[in-house]
Specification:
This protein is mainly alpha-helical and 97 residues long. It contains three helices and no strands. The chain starts with 10 loop residues before the first helix and ends with a helix. 16% of the residues are buried.
Length: 97
């Protein structure tokens, strides 16, 4: 799933499509019981979606601010899950060594 705009196409179609692909990519990584790699990939998609929002409105007013805040909150929630998984793996590795 590429993160690029087709500059030959209408931006009014390309930008929303790019945003949609990033959010769909994040959701796709979170199907079932995602592991640390899937959570990491989902967070990267959300960061890219937030970047698109910031390109649309530098000052992030109105609905774009709420969308950006929602994506940021979701990413933070996922980071806690990922951190927990990494901590568990680290503890297991220390016990085994």
């Amino acid at each position: 799933m590429s993160f690029e705009l087709d500059l030959e196409a209408a931006l009014s179609r390309e930008v929303p499509g790019l945003l949609h692909r990033q959010i769909a990519g994040a959701l796709g990584n979170l199907n079932g019981t995602p592991g640390a790699a899937a959570i990491h990939a989902a967070r990267l998609h959300m960061k890219k979606a937030r970047a698109v929002l910031r390109l649309l409105d530098e000052r992030l007013h109105g609905p774009l601010t709420r969308a950006d805040q929602a994506l940021r909150a979701a990413g933070r929630h996922l980071s806690a899950d990922r951190d927990e998984a990494v901590l568990a793996c680290t503890i297991d590795a220390l016990i085994e060594s």
